[in-house]
Amino acid sequence: MATVRGIDVRGTQHCETTALGVLLRQQGLDLSEPMLFGLGSGLSFVYWDSKNMGFPFLGGRVKPFELTRNLADGLGLELVVQETTSPRRAWENVAARIDAGRPVGLQLDSYYLDYFSSKVHFAGHVVALYGYDDTDAYLVDTEQQGGAVTTSLASLAEARAARGPMAAKHRSFTLTAPPEPPSLHDRIVPAVTACAEAFLNPPIANLGQRGIDKAGKLVRTWLRRTERPDRDLPQAALLMERAGTGGALFRNLYRDFLAECAELLGSERLRTGHRLYAEAATLWTEVAELITKAGVSGDAQCLEQAGSLLHDIARVEREAMQTLSRL
């Protein structure tokens, strides 16, 4: 059996920030989950629908692993990423790290993990691996999945080899912090303004502020979009609130990040951004509740209300990001 010593197996709300926290705390760099999310410029929005999808998806963050790359760049961390098409080489890559006393981040499909409570394919899931024996792997996942968990080596191999949307080629990674702890004061403003600029100026209409406005129009059609609204609408709302988002489609995490930043920097613009994202977070939860109600009751008026609220959210978040872009 090989196990990395000194691992804080604390599970938090979102998978990628949970894994990042494990890797960094092992080196003495302990940041809150909202701070990890915000310094990684993690907030975004996407309205995702295509012919091969059974139902539209509302996403509230940047694409998988972009947050990790952003965080590493912003904090001056050494990020080493390994990918391969060979399952044997993939396992050798991570086993060597564990044997050397380093926890490893893995991107995989959560569907195959033994402990996972919701059997839905999602190949953008991220966990921290900190040990293994002849039959099992020892992981840290989100709080809702159990924090410190185990899965069979066979299931881990399946999860890492999965293909499909957002999949990576047996991706594993490590982070190394610089000898001197990075100054958060110097990193906050670039992270916030980069996130704001990307949100305000998306390349396509499905993303950022434009995507939320588009969702406000299209969500009104969702009862006609599926033959099983009683299943698909509540599932979409559940993904917004409980699928590792921290609630309110990641807006709770970003709200709390801005609160920490305002305290550290004493910035009035950060306080305004925090106030507006607190308002947006409340509205997102109301939207999820209305979508659930529409699916259960079949009442199209609930979706009309949800659409109106989404237009309000687009306005509130646009104002917040315009303020934050001027930091």
Pick out its properties:
327 residues, alpha+beta, Cathepsin B, Chain A, 2 domains, seven-stranded antiparallel sheet, 12 helices, BtrH_N, BtrH N-terminal domain-containing protein, DUF4872
Would you give an account of this structure?
This protein is of the alpha+beta class. The chain folds into two domains: about 1-30 and about 80-175, Cathepsin B, Chain A; about 185-325, no CATH class. The protein is built from twelve helices and nine strands. The chain has helices spanning about 15-25, 35-40, 65-75, 85-100, 155-160, 185-200, 210-220, 220-225, 230-240, 250-265, 270-295, 300-325, and strands at about 1-5, 45-50, 55-60, 80, 105-110, 125-130, 135-140, 150, 170-175. Strands 1, 4, 5, 6, 7, 8 and 9 form a seven-stranded antiparallel sheet that branches. It has a two-stranded antiparallel sheet with strand order 2-3. It starts with a strand and ends with a helix. The mean pLDDT is about 95. InterPro entries: BtrH_N, DUF4872. This is BtrH N-terminal domain-containing protein.
Task: Provide the fold topology.
Elements: E1 2-3, H1 15-25, H2 33-39, E2 43-48, E3 57-61, H3 66-75, E4 78-82, H4 87-99, E5 104-108, E6 125-132, E7 136-140, E8 148-152, H5 153-161, E9 172-176, H6 184-200, H7 208-218, H8 222-225, H9 229-242, H10 251-265, H11 268-297, H12 300-324
Antiparallel strand pairs: 1-6, 2-3, 4-9, 5-6, 5-9, 6-7, 7-8
Helix pairs in contact: 1-2, 2-10, 6-12, 7-12, 9-11, 10-11, 11-12
